[in-house]
Amino acid sequence: MNREPSERVDVCIVGAGPAGGLMADGLARRGHDVVVLEAGPRFDADHEDRERRMERSIRPGHGPDSVWEMGGERDAYESTGEQYYPLNAARVKGVGGSTLHWQGMVMRLHERDFRLETETGVGADWPIAYDDLRPHYADAEDELGVAGASDNPFAPPREHPHPQPAFEPSYSDSLFADACEELGIATHSVPNARLSEGREGRSACVGYGTCQPVCPSGAKYDATIHVERAEAAGARVLDRAPVQRLEHDDAGERVTAAVYATPEGEQHRQEAREFVLAAGGVENPRLLLLSESEQYPDGLANSSGLVGRFFHDHLFAGVGGTLDRPTRQNHVGFNTTESHQFYDQPPDGSRGAIKLEFLNYAGPSPVEMALGGDDWGDEMLDRIRANYGTHVAVGALVEQRPRAENRIRLHPERTDDHGNPVPDVVWSLSDDERRTIERANEIQRRIMDELGADVEWTVGPESTGPAFHHMGTTRMGADPESSVVDSQLRTHDLGNLTVASSSVFPTGGAMNPTLTIAALALKAADHVDERL
Amino acid sequence: MELTRRDVLAALAASGAAAGASVSLASDPGDGPVGDHEVDTLVAVARVVYPSAVDGVESFVGQYSVERARDRPEYASGVADAVAALDEYSRTWEDAEFVDLDAERADRTLSGFEVDTADPDPEGSDRERVRYYLVNELLYALFSTPTGGSLAGIENPQGHPGGTTSYQRGPE
């Protein structure tokens, strides 16, 4: 493959995930010359390749990071905070980005999320309101092919139904619905970025049950769809072309080139009129920090000193157990019922947002039990029958507040395969967050008690982990002293540098972030188009 | 429960080896590393590790293994290598290749080799490769089919594209 730089490029986009793919597609279709530089490979998109990756995900003997070939010197990292962060489990490098392994849950943030500091006195406000993003949310739902229903009494206002009908509730949802009704907890459908009906040559979901980390049918949205559409519109996409640093002009006002490496060991400079960072909440700040210069010794776009700061994620809380009757789990790998009743933060800011999820895949699946046991034959089957079929679980995403001490920084000693300092994830939990997790656990236990479940496990404050949503590290704001990008997602310091990613989220609520990433990317594409 | 041609196709689909019901199933192993002896050994292993309620093991394993090995030389050589390792152990302790053992001796041989407690690892020790390429290979094939799943109470098991209605249904 020719990895020489292109001439007369309008937009150079770093990263071929959902933000990069959507921007490349939107800008190429508007007639702009677009080049996308992606650090990872272009995976085979055929059905057989996806099924082989699915097999790797189910069968023990392969590390979970190996399904999408993460790991090694390219992806080296450190985690030096109080709480360990398993970074390579949380991302995929390649055309399609982390949507290749994501779950595919797509909710809009609530109106209050955009003005959290004003409403509760904690966190931060966004420089835009829900209404500013609302039309882009609708467009993003259409682009991703979201299956959803307008039955959520807690959701922010919307103008049209979702583009696809929602998936019907599961059998276990009906058990939870009865218990929740007794407790006065409203349940509702889940917007899913997977097709419930075929569309544009893509299959509807056929129930492989392995959504995360592989959907062999292609019903689950991944960003290869928009990358391929962008290429059809004339965009050029270079895989295995990791950007090493950005260069700027003498005035320090504009980015002039992205310097990238090739598998052959060469380095090239891609010049362009506009640049977009769309490499996620870890690699975006890392690349800005790696792009230090005489004029910007602390890294590019970092006059605020906040590049890499305010790293936050969502925290998982959960309670699981068994019933004395069948629950029919593990037929599909996605959820169909949630409750956002405990989402909005109280006015005194005493706890963060909580989003309840009722799992359709509680407990081990029979194939996993068969492959992981130390027996076989009838003894194995007896064990599987005894352990499959009665599990239930309620999960939750819990809000984490942005705190400056949680950050992505360059590790002072360890380097990657190109000699660049690796990202160091400094991550910890606050007492407020632990209390919110405890509150989520209380609600979950009430529901499980009402169901009559025998509770077998709890993921609480001491055992929680991240939901793999990297936010906050190039935060958006109106004030250049307290933020990295403005409301157009353009850096305050460099006039032709846009950041499209969850890295711009000032706060993250407790909603899965990809729909908001997509909406912001569509908004940013409009702004870049206007400037061109 | 009888394993059928539909189950063979389902197992192959779960491993990325076949695209649909139109595929024609070969029964002749051909010239690759997975020949008659390897297929016969897989059948013999399946008779140990599959539950006794499963019928049609020989044709299921035979058709699945031949088709699975087609166009996948790395996988085929892994199976052949694991069969050789199992035979070596079997000859040492039972003076016979694995396919020639009766059911009791076959079970004793696999257990004696500690395959039941071995971690499956395609790059690991002899017993770990036997676990990966023979035992887990066969268990994955079985439990990713509707028939195998139904044995355990799930008609649409993980790895099988069984549609989006079964998850909505309550127990029978």
Automatic annotation (TrEMBL), chain A:
Keywords: FAD, Flavoprotein, Oxidoreductase. Residues 8-39 form the FAD-binding domain. It comes from the Archaea. InterPro entries: FAD-bd, FAD/NAD-bd_sf, GMC_OxRdtase_N, GMC_OxRtase_C, MIP_CS, P2Ox-like. Residues 402-521 form the Glucose-methanol-choline oxidoreductase C-terminal domain. Gene3D superfamilies: FAD/NAD(P)-binding domain. Residues 91-315 form the Glucose-methanol-choline oxidoreductase N-terminal domain. SUPFAM superfamilies: FAD-linked reductases, C-terminal domain, FAD/NAD(P)-binding domain. One of its GO terms (molecular function) is oxidoreductase activity, acting on CH-OH group of donors. Residues 46-71, 146-168 are annotated as: Disordered. Its cofactor is FAD. The keyword Flavoprotein applies. Residues 46-58 have a biased composition (Basic and acidic residues). The keyword Oxidoreductase applies. Belongs to the GMC oxidoreductase family. This is Choline dehydrogenase. The lineage of its organism: Archaea, Methanobacteriati, Methanobacteriota, Stenosarchaea group, Halobacteria.
UniProtKB/TrEMBL annotation, chain B:
It comes from Halobacterium salinarum (strain ATCC 33171 / DSM 3754 / JCM 8978 / NBRC 102687 / NCIMB 764 / 91-R6). Residues 150-172 are annotated as: Disordered. InterPro entries: Gluconate_2DH_su3, TAT_signal, TAT_signal_bac_arc. This is LacC domain protein. It comes from the Archaea. NCBIfam families: TAT_signal_seq (TIGR01409). PROSITE patterns: TAT (PS51318). Residues 163-172 have a biased composition (Polar residues).
